[in-house]
Amino acid sequence: MRAINLSYTSREQVEVYRFSWPVSIGLPLLLVGLQAFMPVRLPFFRIFDFGLLLTIFFAVSRRSQVSGLLTGAAIGLLQDCLTHTPFGVFGIAKTLVGYGASSIGIRIDVENPGSRFLLTFFFYGVHMAVFLAIERELMGQSVHINLGHEAGVAVANSLMAVFLFALLNRFKIRD
Amino acid sequence: MNLFSRHKNTVVLAMVLLAQLLALAVQVKRQTAEGPVRVIRLVAVTTLAPFERALIYSGESVRGIWNNYLDLRDVRKENLRLKADSERMRLDRAREQEDARQARRIQALLAFKEQWIDATVAAQVIGTSGSETSRLLYLDKGAQDGIKADMAVITPDGVAGKVLTVYGDHTSQVLLINDPSSGVGATLVNSRLQGIVKGTSTGEVTLNYIMGDESVQPGEALVTSGGDRVFPRGLPIGTVVKVSMGRNLFFDIKLKPAVDLNRLEEVLVITSQKPRGPDTAGLGPIRAADILAQHLPGVPQTGAPQTPAPQTGVPQAGAKQTAPAVAPQATPGGQPAAKPVAPRSPAQNAVPAKPQATKPVASEGTRPQ
């Protein structure tokens, strides 16, 4: 059984992956579209943020900060398009998540389910914190959150990430 | 070697082009039938909507085949249940018809006019915002079906939301009542207090601006007040589930929406409302006296000859309206035998006479119903 390797000593030890263009463009469109469609039939699907999961997955796989933040920005803006809030709310939050996830991806092993679960849980919190900061400080909205509910949603997204990342590993191309 | 350094020139070019395109799309608003819409939103919605529509329709087809099979089973049992329901509803309907007739008579007396639902368009929900913080739906009907911004969206259970934006001929965006930016004028059914129903960031529905010194009980129903000029008056919104003291002297009132906002698949968009008075056809004469006569205690009928009542529905200026001379008489079976008769002059009332028999009094003002 593979041991959990929590840290690397050099950049060379880290495996860097890339993705084909159809995957890089088609996958976010497909999953964000699915996220918009599924709650019509399965309301509980509303809790999953596939945009966030994809941002983290691409960021930790490519392990490039520029690539991570651009991917996050693109996915965030795509999600912004489907809401009625100003552009940039999800864009900014996911840009920061993309940057942070790729930075962490360089330093620690993110290939095992445990670290993927913790990573997603952590970045869900970061995403929510940035989102709240934008809503409250920049937009002046009075946003209230239910911490218990958000913790549950974070766990659900983290579990989904474990399965989704395993599935998406098939699209990785070793650089 | 990462993607950026391998395709540096291409990536930089793509970034610059993308940034400019985004900036342009965000700034530029395209004029649609329903006003200006940002190009980036228009492109995103028109790109995703056909896929969502295709998914919905293919799912519907598969589900339809399966449901047809399932429906065949248990059909006998369901038929019996529906027959029983039908009988019960027939009785309810008879009672309600009488109440409605009376309400229309009162409305006619008051020259009451309200917004009536004139036309609706049924629409299928094809998508959501995909976010817990933005409570939106996308419908498969748009400008071609007469959908416009600010039209009310309802279901047979009650109010769901309003049309926010129309994206082209076949897609529109609906803001649900549990979104924080929504607002619906509402009236509490029992206390007649008025407030504004708004959503919260957690997707709950609350009633706002009810003073803390008022009396509001959990379980009280809430309907639209019509004051927002979007929703017609009297549509169910929900019921009060929790009342607590909030900030600024107002109650913090949580509601259970009449519509399950998380499971909307088909909705009705109200495309036309018309101001209309009540339909008074077949109601008989409309006078305050007739209506009061059904509620005031009966006075024994005198045997004086009846004066035919005027046909007009509105009391004439200068004419004295008196309390009704006769209230419905009861038969031994407990059924009203006669409708109230026309009001009589004080002089007529002054004439002593024998009590009236249970035979209906024939006059213009007492058309049997």
Question: How do you describe this structure in short?
Answer:
The complex is a heterodimer of chains A (175) and B (369). By secondary structure, chain A is mainly alpha-helical.
SSE arrangement:
The complex is a heterodimer of chains A (175) and B (369).
Chain A: E1 17-18, H1 21-41, H2 50-62, H3 65-82, H4 89-107, H5 113-138, H6 147-168, E2 173-174
Helix pairs in contact in A: 1-3, 2-3, 2-4, 3-4, 4-5, 5-6
Chain B: H1 3-6, H2 8-27, E1 29-32, E2 35-38, H3 39-72, H4 75-109, E3 114-128, E4 136-139, E5 152-155, E6 158-167, E7 171-176, E8 184-188, E9 194-199, E10 205-208, E11 221-224, E12 236-245, E13 251-257, E14 266-276, H5 288-293, H6 346-350
Antiparallel strand pairs in B: 1-2, 3-4, 3-14, 4-7, 5-6, 5-14, 6-7, 8-9, 8-11, 9-10, 10-13, 11-12, 12-13
Task: Give a description of the structure.
Chain A contains 6 helices and 2 strands; from the N terminus they run βααααααβ. Chain A is an all-alpha fold and 175 residues long. Chain A starts with 16 loop residues before the first strand and ends with a strand. The N terminus of chain A is likely disordered. Chain B is of the alpha+beta class and 369 residues long. In chain B, the strands form 3 sheets. A 6-stranded antiparallel β-barrel of chain B has the order 3-4-7-6-5-14. The longest helix of chain B has 35 residues. Chain B is globular, with a radius of gyration of 30 Å. Chains A and B meet through helix 1 and helix 3 of A and helix 2, helix 3, strand 3 and strand 4 of B.
